[in-house]
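BUG-515 | component: ligand-complex export | severity: low

The export step for magnesium ion jobs runs without errors, but we want the raw record kept on the ticket for reference. Input record follows.
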Amino acid sequence: MAMTKASPHSGDGLAVRLRGVSKSFYGVRANDSVDFDLAWGEVHTLLGENGAGKSTLCSILAGLYRPDSGEFLFDGEPQAFKTPKDAFAAGIGMVYQHFRLVANLTVAENLALGHGDLGVRISQKDLEARAAALGERYGLPVDPSALVWQLSVGEQQRVEILKLLYRDARVLILDEPTAVLTPQEAEQLFKTMRQMAAEGRSVIFVSHKLHEVIAVSDRVTVLRAGKSVGAVATADASPKDLARMMVGRDLELPTREARDSYGDAVLAVKNMSVLGDRGNEAVHDVSFEVRSGEVVGVAGVSGNGQRELAYGLVGLRPPTAGTVLLDGDDVTATSVLDHIEKGFAYVPQSRLGMGLGPGLTTEDNLGLKAFRNPPFSIGPWLKAAAFKEQGATLIDRYDIRGVRPGLPIRLLSGGNLQKALIAREVTLEPKVLIARSPTRGLDVGATEAVRNHVLSERDRGTAVLLISEDLDELLALSDRLVVMFDGRIVGEMPAEDATAENLGLLMGGTVSEAG
Ligand SMILES: Nc1ncnc2c1ncn2[C@@H]1O[C@H](COP(=O)(O)OP(=O)(O)OP(=O)(O)O)[C@@H](O)[C@H]1O
Ligand SMILES: [Mg+2]
């Protein structure tokens, strides 16, 4: 079984050496003559704005894409991987931004998949024992006999990483792994990453969270518009320095300005309960209000009912008890379409699954919710020109990058997808905006833009419900905070009283003494 230390190294002493690597898609240079050095035993961050070319570069290293030109040495040897299998066989493995596990196999079966072990008919028991031992050793606990679809995203990610370690990968590429993790899970992952580096493996890490980057990595290579602008040791860098290298200007993330009065309650939720996927009661007897011009933040560790709360509010899953009022109007049992027409806007967490039509163009996606009304349709006719015009305006205003006429939106980078989603929702001038982790996966510049959009909705008088696991963001934007734990609201406080500590305690299920 593959549990040896990473093997000794040869050649130039580097794990990976890239010189002048370029890759274009439909005429866009995703990577433009990139130089990159990865040492053995280091954690090396790739940093850059949304669309800067990070995932593309990772995918070249992992054999998914072949570079158009340039030199690629792995352990001193020139490489021309044809497929991810070739790269994996050589010792380079990647955990993609969007996972690729087989959902109806067990964890252990997923680990062995493609390894040949299934062919020699290793017993299920042996397989599970190996998986458990490996998980233990690297601080990546998973139940080896669980089916993958039953796992949380955090657990699925652990399986993805274990899959690489099972094959004794010497270079592990983690593309935005922490975007889907709770702060506690991220902490544990950082320990695992350091352990892998201490064993002589190399880890490539992609993240937009600058404090994480500095905490976990030895060096950072910055990409800007497909070009490498240089590498720095994190010991010499501050978050501010990194942000400046990345976007070429100084950035200050916006925060709300306190205000002493709010409008009337626009959204009023009374004793609402909503079922979860397995028929359990995921939201239990929840009551709260959001007033006009107010941001109410919902804090909580993911999986405590936030998703079902949002579903219940926007009509995706009718509540089993309680009422939802919009401006005093009962909307509890109405359809999603009714919700939209009455003034609900929703920014979901999963962009391609629920928010956007992956196969449609960006322009069509931007018009998707307004298409029933003029100027997009007149009588039964859809007006293509109006879609185009609206699309162009929003693409410009929301700085959505990488759009190519006629091509599907799914080709945009992750961060730009999120910008498109927000653009579409906010342009409807909603009365209530419900946003789940709206800046997850966004670069600092885009985060700045999205935060400004949320705050300008607040100033316009929209009632904003911000559901997030990012405490910094909740504290920066919310006028009032509620904490969800186990489907209930276990605490509520004005922004002035909220700190990361007291929120964290409530999120962990510790009810404060004050109640
Ligand atoms: N398969 C593809 N087909 C067409 N265009 C692509 C493809 N993959 C990437 N691109 C384009 O290449 C550019 C770089 O994308 P990439 O996904 O590498 O960015 P990124 O730095 O990972 O961004 P993010 O932080 O948003 O994940 C973008 O303009 C993107 O739209
Ligand atoms: Mg990416």
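Assignee comment: Attached the raw record above. The chain has three domains: 14-247, 263-343+430-515, 353-428.
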